[in-house]
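Hi, here's the filled form for the chain we discussed.

Project: internal
Contact: R.S.
Residues: 126
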Amino acid sequence: MTIARLGAAAGVGVETIRYYQRRGLLAVPPSAGSVRRYGAEDVRRLKFIRRAQAAGFTLEEIGELLRLDRTSDRARVRALATARLAALDAKIAELEAARGALERLKGVCAAGGKGPCPIIAAFDPE
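And the returned structure, exactly as it came back:
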């Protein structure tokens, strides 16, 4: 498939693919005439990159994971996954705190009948 079809198959643009290639995350296939051809493994790799990004891995970490995929270094993979889980747990706690603040804001603004809504006070942690 062409680079445009590869992008469509993985839900990314051509420039994103080229950027990943420049970063060494995705191989540049040899030219078949004037067109480079990509296969199913390229789609799989590109989808992995996108999923790993969605999980919060940096491109540097994704590059390391791709290199580790061909090794037996399970300890390093576990360490990367553990660090990412800790970061996600921290982000979840932050989002839950923000949700609580918004619930307080909604509640205090609904309870009052006159005057301004106590916006700043609603964001004070209880």
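Let me know if anything looks off before we file it.
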